[in-house]
Design a protein that fits this description.
By secondary structure, the chain is of the alpha+beta class. The protein folds into 2 domains: 143 residues, Alpha-Beta Complex (Nucleoside Triphosphate Pyrophosphohydrolase), CATH 3.90.79.10; 76 residues, Arc Repressor Mutant, subunit A, CATH 1.10.10. Helix content is 29%, strand content 27%. It is built from 7 helices and 10 strands. The strands form 2 sheets. Strands 1, 2, 3, 4, 5, 6 and 7 form a 7-stranded mixed β-sheet that branches. A hairpin with a 7-residue loop joins strand 9 and strand 10.
Length: 235
């Protein structure tokens, strides 16, 4: 038998999940208290080790369910982190994922076992290892993809208003957007279905609720949509 790779030092492989949520006003990050040493009880992303019989996506799904109770959420592989010194105990390569959820839809589903807490992206606590770098790269990816694909709908409830959607995009890009151009661009995608009822808690006139056309959304999710004008977002 060839000996080549059998003489190499083994490496551990982990997955870490960067979970973003929207509370109606700002974007937040879900963190937990690390459950084991080193740095036990410190703030951490959701993470764990890949088992020998698991694919990476399977491990990410399992770990997310195990640590937070969340399942069936939008999740995407992000980047691999392999600095030899990133874990002080043993050489570990981590494959990071990011997930997008509506905070209010999933707040009752989140497990309390690891004392999870939502933090504003502008007020994050100190994180273990290279987790802050993971968050930074994940957020850059979300901002980039959201300008091309309609992934931000994953952060909204099933029914939403145009003002809610505008607030979401303002929060994601931290800037004012032209309301008329924004609404026109959204409506021309054909992704939104206006409902008969209105949200009247924030104004007497009320704003119509919309729902996502899920068939069109699924078929267009990976298509280049130029969802928002790049000049509005990245200038």
């Amino acid at each position: 038998m060839p000996e080549n790779h059998y003489n190499e030092s083994p490496l551990l492989v982990a997955v870490d999940c960067v979970i973003f949520g929207f509370d109606g006003t700002e974007i937040k990050l879900l963190l937990i208290h690390r459950g084991f040493e080193p740095l036990k009880e410190k703030w951490s992303l959701m993470g764990g080790f890949v088992q020998p019989n698991e694919a990476l996506d399977e491990a990410a799904t399992r770990i997310l369910k195990q640590l937070t109770g969340l399942s069936g959420v939008y999740m995407e592989q992000l980047h691999s982190f392999g600095d030899p010194a990133r874990d002080p105990v043993e050489r570990t390569i981590s494959v990071a994922y990011f997930a997008l959820i509506d905070i209010h839809t999933y707040e009752k589903q989140i497990s309390e076992s690891y004392l999870p807490e939502w933090f504003s992206l502008k007020k994050l606590p100190k994180l273990i290892f290279d987790h802050r770098q993971m968050v930074h790269i994940a957020w850059q990816r979300v901002q980039y993809k959201a300008a091309l694909h309609p992934i931000l709908f994953e952060l909204l409830p099933e029914k939403f208003t145009m003002p809610q959607l505008l607030s979401l995009y303002k929060a994601v890009y931290d800037k004012q957007l032209d309301k008329r151009n924004f609404m026109r661009k959204l409506l021309t995608t054909g992704l939104l279905v206006r409902q008969k009822d209105k949200e009247k808690e924030t104004s007497k006139r009320g704003a119509y609720y919309y729902k996502l056309d899920k068939k069109k959304y699924s078929s267009n999710l990976q298509a280049f949509m130029s969802f928002l004008p790049a000049k509005e977002i990245f200038r």
